[in-house]
Amino acid sequence: xxxxxxxxxxxxxxxxxxxxxxxxxxxxxxxxxxxxxxxxxxxxxxxxxxxxxxxxxxxxxxxxxxxxxxxxxxxxxxxxxxxxxxxxxxxxxxxxxxxxxxxxxxxxxxxxxxxxxxxxxxxxxxxxxxxxxxxxxxxxxxxxxxxxxxxxxxxxxxxxxxxxxxxxxxxxxxxxxxxxxxxxxxxxxxxxxxxxxxxxxxxxxxxxxxxxxxxxxxxxxxxxxxxxxxxxxxxxxxxxxxxxxxxxxxxxxxxxxxxxxxxxxxxxxxxxxxxxxxxxxxxxxxxxxxxxxxxxxxxxxxxxxxxxxxxxxxxxxxxxxxxxxxxxxxxxxxxxxxxxxxxxxxxxxxxxxxxxxxxxxxxxxxxxxxxxxxxxxxxxxxxxxxxxxxxxxxxxxxxxxxxxxxxxxxxxxxxxxxxxxxxxxxxxxxxxxxxxxxxxxxxxxxxxxxxxxx
Length: 454
Description:
By secondary structure, this protein is an alpha/beta fold. It contains 19 helices and 14 strands. The protein folds into 3 domains: 2-139, no CATH class; 148-256, Nucleotidyltransferase, domain 5 (2-Layer Sandwich), CATH 3.30.420; 263-442, Exopolyphosphatase. Domain 2 (Nucleotidyltransferase, domain 5), CATH 3.30.420.
C-alpha cells in the first residue's frame, strides 16, 4: 500500500480485493481517521494501473454521461439509488452513526467518482456505475486483476462467522494467489444448540453477507463459487431454506461437511508448506464444534467434538463477566470432551500444535499487543501457553463491552471468546503443549484447494 500510494497509509484499512499478482486492488477504510474525523470513502481503488484505466474513462467525460443516463434510464437510476443507500449502511456496520456521511464515496446521489463506484463493485456492492466500468475495462486493455489462471471462490459458513476466499490457481505454480479474503460474524448458529433450528434473523444476516460475497467473487472473475457449511448447519433441522438460497446465489449445491471432512480440510489448509516438526495436531476451534486432526503430510486420525465458543457460551455463561462457578463448569465440560478425544486421536504423538480460526488468532493478537488486526504478522507466529493463559484470564475478567473495545476484536466475537480461549488453554495444558503455531490458513483454504484439484 505504501508503494501504491507513495506514502504511508493514514487510515487503518483492510484489503478486500487483490489483483492477479496478489497486490492490493481495493481496500476497506475505517470510517474515521486517527483524529476522529469522518472518512466517507469506505472502499478505495488502489492499484495504480487500474486507477489509470479508470481515470482515462473519466477524462473521456463518462462521469457526466452516466449522470445523464441516471436522468433518462429508470432502471439505472433505481440501481444507483440503491448503491447510495447500501454503501452507508455498510459503513455504519463498522462505525455506528457513519450512515449519515453520504453514499458511494460520500456522494448523496448521482455519479461522483468512477474510481469509488468501481471499487464498490469489486468489493461486492450492487453498483450500476461500477459494473459499467468493469465491462468497459474488460473490453479495453487488460489490467492486473485480469491475469490468467483458474479462479475459484470458497465460502466457509461456520457457526459464528461466514468467510470468503477467492484464489487464482495457475498450472505450474506451487501456491495459489489470494484475490480476496474476508470474514463477517453473522452467528447463524444462534440458538441452534437449544432449538435445533436456524433462527430467521440469523438466516437473514447470513444471506445478506453471502450475497455480497458472491457478487465480489464474480467481479473478481471466479469460475466457481462453492459454499461448505459446518456444525450449526449440520445440526439444524430446517437447513433446506438455506440450501435453496445457496443454490440460487452460487449455482451449486451447499455442501454440509461431516465433522471428519471438516477436520481433514482444516489440516489441508493449515499445514501446507509448514516448516515445523511433524506430526502436526491441528486444533480448529469453531463456534459449534472443535476439530482435532493429527498427521504428517496427510491427516491420519481426526475427530469433531461438540464443543465450540458459541455452543459453550450458550450452555454455561450467563453472567457478564462470567462468574467463577460458570468458568468451573465450562472447564469441566471441556476436560470431559478432551478425555474422549484422547481415546480416538493419538494427540500425545504430535510434535507441533497448530491452532487455527478466529479464537486462536485473536488471542495471539491480544498477546502480542497488536494495535490493529494484521494477518501477515499473525500467520504462523508462535503463541506460548503462558500467553494463552494470561489472555484467557484477562478476557474472562472483562465485560462483553470491554472486550468489544479491544482493537483486534472482530465485531460479534466479544461475547464468545472466553469460551473459545478456554478450549485453547485446556488443550495446551492437558496435552503438555508449551506453544502453538497460529495459522491464518485453515478450512477455508482447504475448501479452495480441494476445488482447484477437482
